[in-house]
Automatic annotation (TrEMBL):
Protein name, per record: Phospholipid scramblase
Species this protein is from: Zooxanthella nutricula
Residues annotated as signal peptide: 1-19
Domain of life, source organism: Eukaryota
Record keyword Signal present: yes
Keywords for the protein's UniProt record, in alphabetical order: Signal
Length: 275
């Protein structure tokens, strides 16, 4: 009888172990950028978030870690863009609101002596909680380097963590259509290697067919809101917005050149007619 009971216990143990091994996560190939956008556009946060947490998500601060009751955060777009083609100053300051329109953060971009973007600071209640320099190095509230966003050949920015050297936090951006402003901007943060969606920044709803006037920033459960915000605003301030401004000025320059050429031709024709 004892041997029978021992045999039954052994069989049960082997059955449980077989089930556990069957359900272990196997390494997955990295998803393509298009597949990650599909995840974001479906408006569904991925399953298996606990697995991400167990891999230690990076966080600048625990104050807003996983806070989602205030999301989506509303970031006005207009201050982030060049106010006009003649204004080459890049500095701006913008209030970031909660979904209920309460002030939560203030983001300020400081320019250097050449009117180029130099340092971005994110402030709440008079305290700097994060900053980003022109090399896209992210600093915590104490001014200590946390990591650097490095653009890869794919176009994504990978956060090289100062503490570990790993690059698991990836930021990507997409402009819908042939847009010359930030109203068609869509950004997201994913977690490598499996591409879980952590945070998004998308244009707000349109009113009366007009362009969107703010970005909606949303983070998933357990994701540091401040790090997501610093990543999005850093890429916009030091990469996307300057490129859009240069493109606008190039187009304006081309138009001015054509106008000058047309004016010259018209003057020549008038001169010939007079003679």
């Amino acid at each position: 009888m004892t041997w029978i009971l021992l045999g039954m216990v052994l069989m049960a143990f082997l059955y449980v172990m077989t089930g556990v091994c069957t359900h272990l996560d196997l390494p997955e190939s990295r998803e393509t950028l298009a597949e990650r956008y599909a995840h974001a556009l479906s408006d569904r946060w991925p399953n298996g978030v606990l697995e991400v947490f167990q891999n230690s998500l990076p966080a600048l601060s625990t104050k807003f870690l996983g806070q989602t009751c205030d999301t989506p955060l509303l970031v006005p777009l207009a201050p982030l863009e060049a106010k006009d083609l003649l204004n080459r100053h890049s500095a701006w300051s913008v209030d970031i609101l909660t979904s209920s329109k309460a002030l939560l953060f203030t983001a300020t971009l400081i320019e250097d002596e050449h009117a180029k973007p130099n340092m971005l600071k994110i402030i709440t209640r008079g305290e700097v909680v994060a900053s980003v320099d022109k090399r896209l190095t992210i600093f915590n509230g104490k001014g200590e380097p946390f990591g650097r966003l490095v653009q890869e050949p794919s176009g994504e920015w990978a956060l090289e963590e100062a503490s570990s050297g790993r690059s698991r936090w990836a930021v990507s951006a997409k402009q819908e259509g042939d847009s010359h402003d930030l109203s068609q901007l869509f950004m997201m943060v994913t977690w490598r290697p499996k591409g879980q969606l952590l945070a998004t920044a998308i244009q707000g709803p349109r009113r009366d067919g007009k362009r969107s006037d703010y970005l909606k920033v949303t983070n998933g459960p357990g994701v540091d809101m401040i790090l997501a915000l610093a990543s999005f605003l850093g890429v916009v301030a030091f990469d996307i917005a300057p490129r859009l401004a240069d493109r606008k000025r190039s187009l304006r320059g081309a138009v001015d050149f054509l106008e000058e050429q047309a004016s010259g031709i018209a003057s020549q024709l008038l001169g010939r007619l007079k003679h």
